[in-house]
């Protein structure tokens, strides 16, 4: 991103975008020409930029330009040589390719502990600031002095360029004369922004842009100002081959055509049979493929007529048989403006051009090239339109042209594949037309003229958003037989289309304003789900989303400050935006609920259209929105200040937790209520540290150690009291403090509830099998009928005595564990807190259980029903005794088909919360047994655990059928182990599952069953027969999936994941490493793609899973395994695998943090040495030592310490850093990868973030200084345990021995000094250069010296012990052993051990002598 956009001539200086929003120029228009070469992964481009100066003193222009080689710069038709291209990507790439990277001090002598220094070299990986080097990766162009900048009228430039009103300066009607800059450039093997996929057959080759990194994607393939607020109009021109067979070839006019032509390999033709098959089947649909404009057909020259006619005849013959004759199609933004023309010089290529008239940021310019098939989605008419057509047929027929402009064409592009046909496309994307119409009707007109969807298996994310286009992964496509993906794909498409309004057309002003665009898009998506699926589904989604926000918002930063210190760049592939996508739409929803409380406001239904209208009219500068502007628009619509709301919910974190007490005062006829906010004390209770993933949670904690937790939330709350006559009375209260005391007036006569209780009690004593409706009808003849309230209750199933006995249910009128007399004398039915859903909160109220039962059975609101179920679930989880009454209420709720399916699933979830007592497992018949009974009733044969053949025709029952096995796997007993009867039941469901007569596919259901069965088996090592049966079933399903592949090979992937879970707990053993790398090394080991739907996507997932298993099973500490992993991450031809392998590494680290690391393939010497040394020390303790006291901690104490550290994020980070501190292979290869030019921006960012978490960053640099010659290390024993170490001088080696020096000294020297010199000579000289020969002359001519030292030397010679230096490889000398009694000093690279002695160590061998226990005993006997 270009933070420094320009440099004025005089006085203005360099100003960053972060500090000064004013810039020195504005991009008005940009023409881009691209000549693409798929075979070489390269392109030659030309970018013509028309900019409007905002000052007549403009001297320098700065553009973002990364990984690009600039060949020429032209300013106003003048060649410019005065430009500076400062790009660290290309600089490091040159150093890496020439082998000079090792010469850099930072790379050679440092490691991942200094990774933050390397990260500072790349501007887009850091936050913009004045202290950082923000001008990196930019090209700075000097404007020639001959170019004059003058003021001109804006109207005079209308014919020069399609300038929009938004480019004018706000305070001037005139603008400066535009400047045209043309940059010619080349790009080879890009790593970010543009990806080439040539991993398969040639007719499946593609190239497409990706923008997963904000403000760091477009500048990797295009010189531009890569920021969201720099928008302009665009012209795009692409030079591409005409057909697949023309890829990599040229047919230039006037050049003799070579005789040899590109031959089609037989294997490629065979592999393309599936493509021929789909062309024959879908010919009616794809008639217009790549022929949208008939006037754009290429015209041949006269002198090439004969040659072209021959080529056309050959093409006609092979058109139906050869996939290499497919047309190359360009999919780009605003496809409706596309035009196709022949190439002026090359007959094998064509030119395709597009125009974008709405100003768009470079980040949202997207295009793709490939042999795509195209489908145009049909128009969908609403339910009311047919009736209107019958009445106004004549009127509509008269003005057909007026309605056509309102229709936005939607086109879908896919690669030819046997599993992508018309039914799959329509089944997955037909809803897009309805989504587009709904948004245009409710929130404002669509900003572009067309919309297209591109589905490719290489797209790294689920969807990437561009102007008028969305590039999606093919995993979103699903056939009609797969019903599980219906909701998820529809939600993702609705969100992608909403992003066209909020995210592409309207962009955030700053990074911290991203929540505005995400929140508006999410709110639009929620409103569409309400329109499409109904009110109950909408309320159920809002309720579940709010509960997820309340559970997760306890260690998160505010949504308006999430990127103040975040890791750059922001990317949609990581979890940085995940929480904002969760919370921001809910915040806007509760804001809408509060705004619509008053009659004067229309809420978000007026705010969003107003913002989009401002963007279209130019009132919103650059169509960028800030948090302050969004707040201003909301306050204008609401006609009230919303400062407190934004302060608490947008600029603050956390959610309120309410503890509410209530009591009815009979004397005053009021309900006394107290509301206390306890979020400061309770928000972190019962939370698991790192539950969302260790890496993301730790990075968030390091980045934001202190979140802005709000202690008191303010606002109005609606309290609804259902009084005795059943009438709800709403009371609006204001919360302004930590504790709020209320007195709510009571409105109903007190006796009515008592009369109703008597009616119910009489029906109970009669013992008849009556429903509440029959009871009410019988009471109709009562003379006091006017005092009776008729109630229509849900959950009135299984009411008869026979049903109660068969299902082990309690009396249907028994709804409380408390006193029934108290229940009869209550003044109201129940109290509903926050009835209008104006808060995202947790509510705990001291309301009796029978009131929650009444709320569950009588309140029609889905949110109220879920609140009641949450109460029963909370009581069950925190109670020491199980309640059969609660289990009966929940069972009747799950069995009543009139309840919404989500409520029934939540009731089953509450049933799974019952703890099964081992001692009295047969006495309590509720909980898990009721859950099994429900499944048997709906889906099994009578009195059997064998299920029926699958029948997914009823969606309600299918969701229930999929949820119950998963919930059963969560059932635990007193020892936190799943009961045996539950495990056997799940195993029977897995074993006898049959889908033969089902019209829908059961792949995802089978995956759910397998995962549930394995979950139930964990943590129970005593049940070995069950493990044998479970592993047998896993083998059976894996063999079945190899013979009859499942959808996307999901069953095989699930089995691999479950094997890993079992292996970590010791219940499964991998026989060989080839079993782990089965799909990583041989990607075609499964069945052929012709009989498997989404085969390539499945193989991608299997490869990623294989590497995750390899890393977790010890490969993360193995040098060869890490080499294999990082080679795939950098060199694999599939871009999807390259990008997501980083995610596999992070998943492995998260898995290790949650579980433990298995050292199977460990070759880390340091770790091995530590383990061996620990064993030796333990053996040495048996001998005893009088001077050393060793405290031995048990394993239990160590586990307690570890659990205590895991309780906080700081402790967990400390544990992980200790674990990874000795992982030397991971350090070395990660450090090399961070310097590799093949690593993309996302890969670098992910690795930088990972090493920041698992290693302690050190602000120091190790520098290696060259030494002319090696010097010997000398040790001098100073006595009293003091040894002086120093290096021996270079010249001392060449001096004569010291006895000769003693001859020259006077005989009067004291013997003390003479003996001292001999002592030093004997102890320090380890290996004399000439032992006998050099000393011979001294002995002959130095008799005086020999006589002087004669009394001393014999004694010293006996005590002379040879010292040693043990070196192993490149390990430094770190250990010193001083032996006073031997008078020796030993140096070693490893610690000293009396039982292990290194005999020989060199680069090829290592010989170690180990002293065993038998040798030690023998030596003891000899000594005795």
TrEMBL record:
One of its GO terms (molecular function) is chromatin binding. CDD domains: M1_like_TAF2 (cd09839). Residues 653-848 form the Transcription initiation factor TFIID subunit 2 Ig-like domain. GO terms for biological process: positive regulation of transcription by RNA polymerase II; transcription initiation at RNA polymerase II promoter. Keywords: Nucleus, Transcription, Transcription regulation. Residues 297-322 have a biased composition (Acidic residues). It holds the Pfam family TAF2_3rd. Belongs to the TAF2 family. Functions as a component of the DNA-binding general transcription factor complex TFIID. Binding of TFIID to a promoter (with or without TATA element) is the initial step in pre-initiation complex (PIC) formation. TFIID plays a key role in the regulation of gene expression by RNA polymerase II through different activities such as transcription activator interaction, core promoter recognition and selectivity, TFIIA and TFIIB interaction, chromatin modification (histone acetylation by TAF1), facilitation of DNA opening and initiation of transcription. This is Transcription initiation factor TFIID subunit 2. It comes from Lachancea lanzarotensis.
């Amino acid at each position: 991103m270009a933070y420094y956009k320009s440099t004025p001539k005089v006085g203005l200086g360099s100003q960053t975008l972060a500090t000064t929003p004013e810039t020195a120029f504005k991009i008005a228009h940009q023409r881009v020409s691209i000549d693409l070469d798929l075979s070489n992964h390269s392109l030659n481009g030309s970018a013509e930029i028309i900019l409007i100066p905002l000052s007549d003193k403009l001297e320098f222009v700065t553009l973002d330009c990364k990984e690009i080689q600039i060949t020429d710069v032209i300013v106003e038709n003048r060649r410019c040589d005065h430009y500076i291209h400062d790009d660290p990507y290309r600089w490091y790439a040159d150093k890496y390719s020439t082998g000079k990277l090792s010469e850099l001090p930072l790379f050679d002598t440092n490691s991942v502990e200094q990774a933050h220094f390397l990260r500072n070299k790349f501007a887009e990986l850091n936050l913009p600031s004045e202290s950082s080097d923000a001008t990196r990766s930019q090209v700075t162009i000097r404007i020639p002095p001959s170019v004059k900048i003058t003021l001109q009228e804006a109207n005079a430039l209308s014919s020069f360029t399609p300038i929009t009103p938004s480019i004018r300066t706000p305070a001037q009607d005139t603008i400066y004369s535009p400047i045209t800059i043309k940059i010619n450039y080349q790009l080879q093997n890009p790593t970010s922004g543009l990806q080439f996929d040539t991993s398969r057959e040639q007719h499946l080759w593609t190239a497409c842009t990706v923008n997963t990194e904000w403000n760091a994607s477009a500048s990797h393939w295009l010189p531009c100002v890569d920021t969201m607020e720099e928008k302009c109009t665009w012209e795009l021109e692409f030079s591409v081959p005409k057909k697949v067979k023309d890829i990599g070839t040229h047919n230039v006019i006037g050049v003799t055509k070579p005789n040899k032509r590109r031959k089609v390999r037989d294997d490629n033709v065979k592999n393309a049979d599936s493509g021929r098959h789909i062309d024959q089947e879908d010919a009616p649909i794809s008639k217009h493929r790549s022929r949208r404009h008939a006037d754009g057909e290429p015209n041949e020259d006269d002198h090439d007529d004969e040659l072209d006619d021959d080529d056309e005849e050959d093409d006609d013959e092979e058109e139906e048989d050869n996939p290499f004759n497919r047309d190359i199609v360009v999919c780009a933004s605003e496809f409706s403006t596309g035009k196709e023309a022949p190439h002026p010089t090359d007959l094998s290529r064509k030119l395709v051009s597009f125009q974008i008239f709405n100003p768009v940021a470079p980040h949202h310019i997207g295009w793709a090239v490939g042999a795509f098939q195209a489908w145009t989605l049909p128009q969908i008419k609403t339910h009311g339109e047919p009736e209107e057509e019958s009445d106004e047929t004549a009127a509509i027929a008269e003005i057909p042209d007026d309605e056509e402009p309102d229709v936005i064409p939607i086109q879908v592009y896919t690669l030819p594949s046997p599993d992508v046909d018309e039914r799959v496309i329509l089944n997955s994307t037909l809803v897009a037309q309805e989504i587009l119409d709904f948004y245009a009707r409710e929130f404002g007109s669509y900003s572009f003229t067309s919309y297209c969807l591109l589905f490719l298996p290489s797209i790294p994310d689920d969807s990437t958003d561009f102007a008028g286009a969305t590039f999606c992964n093919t995993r979103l496509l699903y056939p009609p037989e797969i019903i599980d993906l219906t909701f998820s794909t529809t939600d993702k498409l609705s969100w992608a289309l909403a992003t066209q309004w909020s995210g592409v057309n309207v962009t955030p002003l700053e990074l911290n304003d991203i929540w505005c665009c995400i929140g508006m898009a999410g709110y639009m998506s929620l409103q569409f789900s309400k329109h499409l699926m109904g009110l109950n589904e909408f309320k159920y989604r809002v309720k579940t989303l709010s509960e997820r926000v309340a559970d997760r918002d306890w260690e998160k930063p505010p949504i308006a400050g999430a990127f103040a210190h975040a890791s750059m760049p922001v990317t949609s592939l990581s979890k940085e935006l995940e929480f904002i996508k969760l919370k921001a739409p809910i915040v806007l929803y509760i804001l809408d609920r509060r705004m619509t409380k008053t009659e004067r406001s229309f809420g978000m239904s007026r705010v969003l259209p107003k913002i989009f209208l401002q963007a279209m009219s130019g009132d919103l500068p650059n169509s960028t929105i800030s948090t302050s502007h969004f707040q201003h628009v909301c306050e204008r619509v609401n006609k009230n200040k919303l400062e407190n709301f934004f302060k608490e919910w947008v600029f603050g974190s956390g959610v309120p937790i309410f503890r509410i007490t209530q009591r009815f005062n009979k004397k005053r006829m009021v309900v006394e209520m107290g509301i206390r906010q306890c979020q400061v004390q309770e928000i972190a209770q019962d939370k698991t540290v790192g539950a969302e993933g260790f890496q993301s949670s730790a990075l968030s904690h390091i980045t934001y150690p202190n979140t802005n937790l709000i202690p008191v939330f303010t606002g109005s709350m609606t309290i609804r009291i259902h009084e005795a006559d059943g009438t709800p009375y709403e009371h609006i209260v204001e919360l302004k403090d930590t504790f709020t005391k209320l007195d709510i007036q009571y409105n109903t006569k007190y006796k009515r509830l008592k009369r109703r209780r008597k009616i119910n009690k009489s029906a109970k004593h009669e013992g008849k099998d009556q429903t509440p409706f029959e009871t009410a009808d019988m009471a109709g003849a009562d003379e006091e009928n006017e005092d009776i309230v008729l109630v229509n209750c849900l959950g009135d199933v299984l009411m008869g005595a026979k049903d109660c006995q068969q299902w082990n249910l309690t009396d249907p009128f028994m709804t409380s564990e408390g006193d029934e007399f108290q229940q009869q004398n209550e003044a109201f039915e129940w109290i509903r807190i926050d009835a209008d859903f104006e808060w995202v909160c947790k509510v705990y109220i001291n309301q009796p259980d029978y009131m929650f039962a009444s709320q569950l059975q009588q309140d029609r609101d889905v949110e109220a029903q879920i609140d009641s179920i949450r109460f029963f679930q909370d009581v069950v989880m925190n109670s020491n005794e199980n309640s059969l009454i609660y289990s009966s209420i929940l069972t009747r709720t799950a069995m009543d088909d009139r309840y919404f399916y989500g409520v029934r699933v939540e009731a089953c979830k509450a049933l799974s919360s019952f703890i099964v007592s081992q001692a009295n497992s047969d006495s309590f018949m509720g909980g898990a047994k009721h859950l099994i009974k429900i499944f048997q009733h709906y889906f099994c044969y009578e009195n059997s655990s064998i299920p029926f053949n699958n029948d997914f025709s009823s969606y309600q029952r299918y969701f229930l059928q999929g949820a119950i096995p998963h919930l059963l796997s969560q059932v635990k007993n007193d020892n936190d182990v799943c009961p045996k009867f539950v495990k056997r039941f799940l195993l029977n469901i897995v074993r006898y599952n049959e889908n033969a007569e089902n019209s829908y596919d059961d792949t995802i259901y089978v995956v759910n069953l397998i995962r549930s069965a394995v979950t139930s088996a964990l943590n129970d090592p005593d049940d070995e027969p069950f493990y044998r049966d479970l592993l047998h079933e896993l083998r059976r399903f894996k063999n079945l999936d190899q013979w009859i592949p499942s959808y996307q090979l999901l069953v095989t992937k699930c089995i691999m994941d479950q094997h890993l879970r079992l292996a970590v707990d010791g219940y499964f053993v991998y026989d060989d490493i080839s079993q782990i790398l089965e799909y990583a090394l041989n990607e075609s080991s499964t069945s052929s793609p012709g009989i498997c739907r989404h085969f390539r996507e499945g193989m991608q997932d299997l490869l990623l899973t294989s590497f995750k298993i390899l890393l977790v099973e010890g490969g993360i500490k193995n040098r060869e395994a890490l080499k294999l992993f990082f080679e795939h991450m950098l060199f694999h031809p599939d871009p999807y695998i390259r990008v997501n392998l980083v995610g596999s590494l992070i998943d492995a680290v998260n898995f290790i943090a949650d579980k433990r690391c298995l050292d199977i393939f460990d070759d880390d010497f340091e770790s091995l040495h530590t383990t061996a040394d620990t064993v030796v020390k333990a053996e040495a303790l048996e001998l005893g030592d009088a001077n050393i006291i060793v405290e031995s901690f048990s394993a239990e104490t160590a586990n307690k310490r570890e659990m205590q550290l895991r309780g906080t994020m700081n402790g967990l980070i400390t544990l992980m850093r200790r674990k990874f501190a000795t992982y030397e292979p991971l350090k070395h290869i990660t450090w090399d990868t961070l310097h590799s030019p093949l690593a993309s921006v996302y890969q670098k960012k992910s690795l930088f973030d990972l090493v920041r978490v698992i290693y302690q960053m050190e602000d120091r640099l190790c520098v290696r200084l060259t030494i002319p010659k090696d010097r010997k290390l000398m040790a001098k024993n100073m006595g009293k345990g003091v040894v002086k170490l120093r290096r021996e001088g270079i010249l001392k080696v060449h001096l004569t021995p010291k006895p000769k020096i003693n001859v020259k000294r006077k005989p009067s020297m004291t013997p003390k000094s003479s003996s001292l010199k001999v002592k030093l000579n004997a102890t320090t000289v380890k290996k004399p250069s000439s032992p006998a020969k050099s000393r011979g002359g001294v002995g002959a001519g130095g008799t005086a010296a020999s006589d002087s030292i004669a009394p001393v030397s014999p004694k010293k010679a006996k005590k002379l012990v040879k010292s040693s230096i043990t070196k192993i490889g490149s390990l430094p000398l770190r250990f010193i052993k001083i032996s006073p009694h031997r008078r020796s000093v030993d140096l070693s690279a490893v610690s000293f051990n009396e039982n292990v002695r290194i005999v020989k160590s060199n680069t090829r061998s290592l010989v170690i002598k180990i002293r065993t226990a038998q040798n030690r005993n023998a030596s003891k006997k000899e000594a005795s």
